[in-house]
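Annex B, item 7. Sequence and structure tokens for protein A, then protein B.
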Amino acid sequence: MSTVSPARTRLPSGRDTDAAYLAAIGERVREIRARRGMSRRTLAHDSGVSERYLASLESGRGNVSILLLKQIAQAIDVPVEQLTRNGPEASTEVALLMQWLSRLSAPEIRRASDTLHRAFGAGGQQRKRRIALIGLRGAGKTTLGKRLAARRRVPFIELDREIERAAGASLAELFLLYGLPVYRRHERRALEALLLRDEAMVIATGGSIVSEPETFDLLLSTCHVVWLKAKPEEHMARVVAQGDQRPMAGSTEAMEDLKRILAGRELLYRKADAIVDTSGKSIAQSLRLLAQLTAAAGTAETAKRPG
């Protein structure tokens, strides 16, 4: 009498697991690069790593040393991120908090973030005195920011100009000579210096400030933040009309890059207190909506509604 062997469930081999791990790293690098608005060529220049290697990494064909580091981390039972982080080892309390957060869903994490901001952020009235505009270039931060500041009779400040003044160099020179890390340090210092003035103001920030967690957290906790959003096509048209295509420099697929940047940053931009969609609106219409939302900043639910 013949017997039929039960079907075996194929378990993923070590090679399959490693391939998935490398693919995840590549996708993560791609997403973070897009969120920061960097082309692969720019990242290669700033990191000193060849474009060829970056292309290989982003396609899931990373260096074997990454896998060896993963094996070491597994052997000592810690996340691989704990081995690669800069600075001293996190305290036990922070490590436990990070593990707890890692088990939450995306909506739960957003709720936890809002709760922490309410509990430990600056007072509501103090935040309302400072309006900070976030969003990609072409959303209207400078145009609307100047008009809103004039209407509120407060100074209008572009954070990038403050960075240039403190660094004694243009942004282009700063990136070319020192790269993104130095720009980030100047960005943080410039924001801290503005906050020390302890006065009402309207601030136009750089489009990628949301990609630097500590600086963005400082902005959210000390300012009433408004995301000026627009459709990718309008962003591109406005930037081209200004004769400035720096955000897309070196890219042969500018629109696809722009869409990836917006998609990568959308959840971060949505942490703003208010959202003004400038798509298809005149300057006067967008300004009227912006003024209404910032005047009624205390009504959180109303301010959160897209324009």
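Protein B:
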Amino acid sequence: MEETYQSNSELSEIWRRFRKNKFAMVGLVILMVLALIAIVSPFLVNYEKQVIAQNLSNRLKSPSLAHPFGTDNFGRDIMARVIYGSRISLAIGFLAVGVSLLIGGTIGTISAYFGGSLDNGLMRVMDVFLAVPSTLLAIAIVAALGPGIVNVLIAMTISFVPAYARLLRSLVLPIKNMEYIEAARVTGVSVVRTIVLHILPNTMGPILVQSTLAVGRIIISAAGLSFLGLGIIPPAPEWGAMLSEGKEFMRNFPYIVIFPGVAIIITVLALNLLGDGLNDALDPRLNN
């Protein structure tokens, strides 16, 4: 009962510090709005008729009441495509972070906890992947597997696994030698229970901050792959693919690339503001 009260008190204090950061609150609100749009987008727009169906009689129409963001070179409503594209971009970002955190976190935790030759071997494998820039590694993986949502997700996941492995290793190393961990070992608590209940909860702060920032980086990387023709296959309304399709018309019809570009900027900005706010809220030393 006392532990529950203490936990609730800590969460309340973190939330209080977070609310004091106005920029972080703005980021949180923007991200919640984007998430809501992504969830309800199938009810806001008709995928078959508004998102992917071509209507050449409406091609390259300037923004108007009928088409607030205008239409692209195939006569498709840009606003509908941007709205539906939020589902793809956010899904890739959060799924890739979740899977890479699960895999990389497991590798890093095992490596740090057991140490020795296992630690050395696992970290040398991670160093091989870290030697290649994450974006270049993703390009190589997608080039080998081919374009598509699943392959982009696989590429983003693999490219971020080493970073999470290193992060968890650095967080677990000092914790595993603390007295309460030694006490858990002496009393016969299993390794899995020790890791899950006593070690990992003390790493949640840095993990949450880094994961929030990583979602933004993955969204940018996925958009870059699609822009290069290695990511999401048109006519799927991914923001990077929309930029790639509209780049030939941007001189005379700039709105074709402005709106998907602004969508990427706003999403990544919201994630960065949220990540910075969480970093300040979770670290009392930064509290003014």
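Comment on protein B: Confidence is low (pLDDT under 50) at residues 1-5.
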